[in-house]
């Protein structure tokens, strides 16, 4: 099956610093990647959708200057949390969608294991 | 707008008992439905999905779900729960194709298994 990895799995940083989270599709080409944020004991909230080679589309209420998304290749997307503050502490999950062999997988998203960000 | 409702925030069952997690959706077209499971501190693992065909779908770990169009439901079931099934379960709905491929998730159901 399709595998998506995230790095790092957890990160602790000081307030005011920037943190980059990588999302990679390991065995398929991800034409679209999604970034989600999950607060404790809550559901996933879609932050943005990124298509390879184009600008990300952010959901309403998500600061694009705060959460920089780059999808430079078909296997890698990055989320950079700029000038992080304690309220940015959360669990960030990426997912990837791409063209797999089976037609019915066209629209299926494959999720990464998540990155736990703690801002002190 | 699409939406997913999981009416049960918490469910506790005894090991070996049967389980049913409820999911109701609102969607303007033919929905593509999913159930995911999330263990603490982990990402989401797909249990099963449904788009068309047999309305009873089988998934991994002994789970199954039944699509009922008339009730806009996609309930998840397991005949005999194991202690390792304790986790958070999310129902999601999205388009099969197009629509920005966005998935809408329910708020989740936390399953606790008593030994």
Verbal overview:
- The complex is a heterodimer of chains A (120) and B (115).
- By secondary structure, chain A is an all-beta fold.
- Chain A has strands at 4-7, 10-13, 19-25, 30-38, 44-51, 57-58, 67-73, 76-81, 90-98, 110-111, 115-119.
- In chain A, the strands form two sheets. In chain A, strands 2, 4, 5, 6, 9, 10 and 11 form a seven-stranded mixed β-sheet that branches. A four-stranded antiparallel β-sheet of chain A has the order 1-3-8-7, with no helix packed on it.
- The mean pLDDT of chain A is 89.
- In chain B, a hairpin with a 5-residue loop joins β7 (56-58) and β8 (64-68).
Low-pLDDT runs of chain B: none
Please provide the ordered H/E string of secondary-structure elements of chain A: EEEEEEEEEEE
Distance between the termini of chain A: 37 Å
- Would you tell me the structural class of the helices and strands of chain A? mainly beta
Helix content of chain A: under 10%
**Uncertain regions of chain A: pLDDT < 50 for 5+ in a row?**
none
Number of strands of chain A: 11
Overall spatial form of chain A: globular
Number of strands of chain B: 12
The largest contact between protein chains, plus residue counts on each side, is:
A-B, 26 and 25 residues
What class would the helix/strand composition of chain B place it in? mainly beta
Q: Classify the beta-strand content of chain B into a percent band.
A: over 45%
Mean pLDDT of chain A: 89
Q: Helix proportion of residues of chain B, in percent? A: under 10%
Q: Report the order of strands and helices of chain B.
A: EEEEEEEEEEEE
Attribute tags:
heterodimer, A: mainly beta, 7-stranded mixed β-sheet, B: 115 residues, 6-stranded mixed β-sheet, 12 strands, 0% helix
Question: Could you give the topology of this structure?
Answer:
The complex is a heterodimer of chains A (120) and B (115).
Chain A: E1 4-7, E2 10-13, E3 19-25, E4 30-38, E5 44-51, E6 57-58, E7 67-73, E8 76-81, E9 90-98, E10 110-111, E11 115-119
Parallel strand pairs in A: 2-11
Antiparallel strand pairs in A: 1-3, 3-8, 4-5, 4-9, 5-6, 7-8, 9-10, 9-11
Chain B: E1 3-5, E2 10-14, E3 19-21, E4 24-26, E5 32-38, E6 44-50, E7 56-58, E8 64-68, E9 73-78, E10 87-94, E11 104-105, E12 109-114
Parallel strand pairs in B: 2-12
Antiparallel strand pairs in B: 1-4, 3-9, 5-6, 5-10, 7-8, 8-9, 10-11, 10-12
